[in-house]
Every structure is written in structure tokens, then in C-alpha cells.
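Re: zinc ion structure - here you go.
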Amino acid sequence: MSRYNAKVVESRWQAAWEARGAFAAKANPERPKYYVLEMFPYPSGRIHMGHVRNFTLGDVVARYKTARGFNVLHPMGWDAFGLPAENAAFEAKVHPGKWTRENIATMRRQLQSMGLSYDWSREIATCEPEYYRHEQAMFLDFLDKGLAYKKESWVNWDPVENTVLANEQVIDGRGWRSGAPVERRKLAQWFLRITAYGDELLESLKTLDRWPDRVRLMQENWIGRSDGARVRFPLKGRDDTLEVYTTRPDTLFGASFCAISADHPLAAELAAGNPKLTDFIADCRRTGTSEAAIETAEKKGFDTGLRAVHPLDETIELPVYVANFVLMEYGTGAIFGCPAHDQRDLDFARKYGRPVTPVVLPPGADPASFTIGTEAYTGDGSLFNSRFLDGMSVPDAKRAVGERLESLKAGERTTVYRLRDWGVSRQRYWGCPIPVIHCPACGTVPVPRDQLPVTLPEDVTFDAPGNPLDRHPTWKHVACPTCGAAAERETDTFDTFFESSWYFLRFCSPHDDGMFDREAVQYWMAVDQYIGGVEHAVLHLLYSRFFTRALRDCGHLDLAEPFAGLFTQGMVCHETYRAPDGKWLLPQEVDRRADGTVVRIDDGTPVTVGRSEKMSKSRKNVVDPENIIESYGADTARLFMMSDSPPDRDLEWTEAGADGAWRYLNRLWRLVNEPQAALPGPGTPPPADLSAALLDARKAIHKGIAGVTDDLDRFHFNKAVARIRELTNAIAPLDGSTEPGAGAVLREGIEAVVRLIAPITPHLAEELWLQLGHETPLVATPWPEADAALTVDDEITLAVQVNGKLRGTIALPRDAGKEQAEAAALALPAVEKLLEGRSPRKVIVVPNKVVNVVA
Ligand code: ANZ
Ligand code: ZN
């Protein structure tokens, strides 16, 4: 007998699918389409188990939808620009392009060994000019539409390396390589006007009913629509006002100070001639530019000596501080502080000895004794200590203050967003060059379209910090396209989120001379099912939603939402192992003995087993997919990935689990290859007059088909696997039965199992299907259909209640009459006992469900 040899079977089918062009997608308006997409990977070097899970999920969906008759598009590519390639260039002296392309080759081979149903003819790598040239054209469109603009903005500056750092290169406020405290610097940078779409991006979230609620909520918070008011405080001894933004105008009578950002123009004005303030501002700028850095830094203020006059009571004067926690980019860059009802303001007021007057009284609290201790009160209540507002609710007081400010022309109600415009300039080599030229006479001049693409120079050096494009001897020196004078190219490149904001559109027509073919996009978009990690829930998805709209408004397509369905998968986890000296050990360095103890393989010393955590190189709890595929085959890895855990939850990878999947596949193999008796030929229908046992087996088969179909439709892949295994158990005993018709039913069952499992373990399924005598491969075979007559139960269990309380169950033929149900219920010993010989007052029968006896 032949043995199941995964390696041989898998490479045979991978070659066969390729020879057929089984996964080449062709637009065909006659057929319903289905676009399934996994978030494309960064070519970091090798695939990891997270990739295996992500891509298997997508592949199961793609193969299932194909079998269901959809015209499926399932492409794959590489998000190939980014910092790691430049780090590799710096450390290993290899060109980022070479490093990236070699990684792509390795990872492509690894993906191909998994048997994923990609249309490889559509493969794209974003680092190639054929891809990024279209981004340059897009940027010119955005410039024309006013969706791109230049503005001075803060960056993280490493004073030792003399270079700009990305936020992720700032660790605890220091440059990751130099260790020097990071400073902030202002640079002219390019921005995309995503805020123009703030409202639309927010409103349209409501239409994304196939997205996880969690992700929608994260996007909502990120956009951060906030309804509040601008309030103008006259400044004492000056004729201008300080405009603040607040979401709590109701607390205006609790104001105890004002504060402005270190980057506020007023701060700069006051700092001239005030060295202490100048120093304080410089100190504020040493905090990183990320919001998290600003949020966690200790709150500090500097009293400018200026006094602001309360807009509703000119007898109240408030000191104006420069404070490190006020951001210039939000609201007006200035606040009034109400310590009683804002924790940050409270901490600040306690530190600088400002008064704390509560103005919102919690329900039930006593106004005479209510005070604020160390915790601000941010809840609801009624206003007090607030003149004309006293007694009002918070929303009423907000309205009343808004109206009063408006009538006094001292402020107005307004809406602001937390969302900022997207700064896309990066001072990096390995990215898409921003297509503009700076001319001393003409200013910023876009590169003419017929001169695109602006390609990256190959001959660059990484031996010094800073941007190699800037250092390059010739690249940036060009003639101005307008006046011909000597000018310089922009040496910044785009943020790499630029590439991933539209790649799903490029996949629709990856070799088009333009950005994409409008008709192809019309047919394939939106992506029906997008699958990826929740870590991209905010930026990537928001930028993609913005790009789709911006491209729509530039006239390139007719669509707003790029991803109709989104699925976020859980992580792959593994136990951790530690040697007595505290060092982490790889799973393959340890052995679990029969008595359950875990030891090092090399010297037998005991190992401490830690809990299951996300696989990470730092903890060494990683399993290399290539090793698994090498020893068990891709189908085993794929099957285990889909078993055990729902796909949106974390999955624990265990040796035992992988082994169990492998053993199950061998069992299937034997069922087909080593039958007790020969199966009847393909297409043999089971006889009509079957024994009860064989009829039950057929019912199990058709219920299995219906159940798995339903599971796959709902992304319940682990349930589908469990059901397929159950079905295998149900039909296995037929092997060797001499009962007439048993062979035909067994064939029906095996064929169902093979077809149902095909999306998950496609290679083995194809091989068995061939061995079962079929000429058309499963990739071209439609999904099995359940026979409705065999999926309904003839016998139904009904609940029996007495006075609403469950007392037992009865089994009846489906759709039995009310009299029959009533008689059976009353005959139950528990019911008879409760009735004590009396006849019931009433019996209510809900057919096929419940009998309620009213005693
Ligand atoms: C007075 C006040 C009283 C505030 C109170 C809050 C509670 P969200 O909800 O995020 O929109 N704020 C305004 N601009 C700021 C800036 N540029 N940097 C830092 N903080 C700023 O937050 C709005 C609140 O954050 C505003 O409302 C303001 O403080 C502060 F009991 O005004 B509030
Ligand atoms: Zn010029």
C-alpha cells in the first residue's frame, strides 16, 4: 500500500494547479465576483506563524468561495519599503534593494510551499518604480486638488547623529543608536488633508456592518469628533484675547488658570527677552513628538505673568501658564484649566497652588460639604457655584454658556477633531521619492508628469547617519522645470503607509500603464473580505479609506469604502521555556517527559515552563513554519491553524496539536487507500431502500455538509473542522460492512469529507479525490450540496413545563398533532405526580417546541 507522503503529494498538486492556471483571476461581468485579500506582508526575511494563520484563513475563504461559484480574486504582494531594509544596509552593508528582493524571493518560495491559491501573475512589490511611479502621479493629483500641502512641523531630532528619527526610533526619549536625548525641530514637511474627510470617515463607519465593532470604535476614537466651544479671554494690559478650546464650557466658573502650548505664538512672543521662559520652552521641546510621549511626561508649567480676564465676570483674573501638556495641534493650542473636573488640571493646580472650585455637584451630594480631594469629578450632576447656571444639568449648562458667549461675541460653539492631517514626509532613502523640486526663484515646483517616475539612485552609502539621498553627490541637483535655473530635488520620501493605502486597487489591474484600470476596479472592488491583524485597525485602514475617497474626488474611481468585510485574526501563541540560569530556550531545545516534567534535551536539566504568550523572537517561543512544513507538510500546519480556536481568538501552537492534525490526515488517507472492501465506482447512488442504520449515516453526511457550509459562511472554521472530524467518525464504521448499500453510503461519506476539508487541506483532498476515481480536480469542482430531505430530523424533542417550570422532555415525530403532544406530556411520570390525579386547567402546545401544562 502507498503511504501518505505529504511532500510528494503537496508538490505534485502545487505544480498541477499552476499548470492549469487554476487561480488566475479574470474579470467577467457575467459572474458574481469575490475579492479576498490578506494584508500584504513586509518582506522581513522569513514567514512566521502569524503569516501562516493569516494566509491560511484567506486561502480557506478563497477556495470555499470559488467552489461556491464566485469569480474569485486572491492576490499577494509585498509592502516592500521601510526602515528595516535601511538598518540592514547600515549593519550588514547590503543595499536595501538587494536585501528586500532576496527576502521577497525567500518568502515567495515559502508561501508557495503552503499551497496558497494566489494569482501570482498579479504579484506586486511596492519598492519597484512600476508601482511607486503611480504614487507620484497621485501626489500631483492631490496637490492639484489641494489635498496635499506643505507646512512647518515638528520632528524628532537626534542631536548627535544630526538626523531625524521616526517615532519608533525614539526609546524612552533617546535616540535608539546614539542614546542622546531627542529634541524637537521644525521642518517643512508634506501633509495630506485627511481632516477634510473627518466627518465622512466617521459617518460612513455606520455602513461597515461587516467590520468588527471593536475596530469601528477604535476608528471613531481616533477621528475623535468632539463638540465644544471656543472661548476668548481678554488679556490684561493688552488689546488681544486668548482663544481656548473646551469641551466643558459648563465648567467655566470653575476656571482657575489658563495654559498655552510651548509652541503657541504667544509663548514665542513672551519668550523674547525672557531667558527663563526660553529655557522652559526648550525643555518642553525635548519631549518626543508622539502623543504618548507627551501624555506620560510629568506635567510642568511656567507662569508667564500675563493675566486672562474671565469672559463672563471681569472681576476674575486667571494666570496664564506655558504648559508642556498642551498640544499646539489640537483645538487652539490653549486651554482654561478647571481642576475640580479634570484630572490633569487638578494635578497641575495642586502642584502650582491654584484654587479648586467644584461647579458640578454629583447627584445626591451635599453642596455645603462637597469638596474635591485628589480625584477630579468628571461625572454628571447639576451645576452650582456658577451664578446663572446653578441648578442646570451639564448639557443645559453647556447650551446656556454657549448662547451667552455667542451673544457677548466672546466665543462660539464648534466641533473639532482629534484627527490631524497626515504628515507623509520621511527623511529616509528606502521609500518613494516625493516628486517636487525646490527652485530658489520659483519656489516649490511639482515634477512635470512626463518626467515621472523620479527613481531612487542605486549608488548610495549607508556609512553615515542621515538621509543618503541628501548626501548623494548628484541626484538632487537638477534644473528647475519652470525657469531652468539650478534647483534641488526634494530628498524626503513618502511614509510607507502611502504604499499600503492603495495596493488593493493596483491588484485589480497590476500591469496597467496608469494607476489602475477603471473598469477592473469597478468590477473587483470593494474587497469583499479583508483579513489581517488588529494592530492595523487604525492607521492603515483609515488611510486606505481616506485614499479611496481622495482618488474618487480626483476622478479616478467611483467608490468610498474599500473594504466591505473585515476580519481580524487572533495571535499565535506558544509556551515559554527558561533554563535555570534564566535564559530563554527554543521549543526544540526542550523535551517533555512521560511524567510531565520538562527538561533540556542537551543536558537533562530541568526547565521552567511559562504560560503561553504571543510568539516572539525575544522569548524564543517561536516555531518556524518551514520546519513544520518540512516534517509534517503544509496541510497539517493549515489544519491545525484552523482547529481548536475561533479565528479571531489567540491560538496556542502545541506539538501535540500538530501531531493530532497529522494523525487525522493519515487516517483519512487510509480510509481511501486501505479500505476493507473495494468501494463501488464514483457516481454510484446509494439504494433507495436503506436500513435504518444506513439511513442515519446518510443523514449524518448531509447534516455534516449543511453544517460545515454554515460554519464556513460564518467564519467558524474551528467548528467546521470539529464537524468534519465527527463526520469521519460517523462513517468510518461502514468500512467493511457487508450490508447492501453500505459501500455506496461509505463512498458518499468519504467524498463529502474530502470535499468539505478541501479548502483547509487542499493537497491531500485533491489526491484523495483523484484516488476516488474523479478526473476533474477539486479546484474545478463545485461545493457539495446537502439534500434537504436528509437534513431534517424526523424526531423532535419537546420541552414539557408545568406552570412554566421545566419538568421533562418528550420525543415526538416532527409536526405531531397537538393532541398527541398533550397526551405524551400528561403521561410523563413527573407531570402525573404534580397533577395528583386532577386534570390540568389548560395545556398550551407550541408545535415542535414546548408543551406547557397549567395545573
Ligand atoms: C476646560 C475643561 C474643563 C476641559 C473640564 C475638560 C474638563 P477632548 O475630549 O479630547 O476633545 N484641551 C483642549 N485643547 C487642548 C490642547 N491643545 N492640548 C491639551 N488639552 C487640550 O478634550 C478636550 C479638552 O482637553 C478641553 O476641554 C480642554 O480642557 C483640553 F472639567 O476645557 B477642557
Ligand atoms: Zn525656477
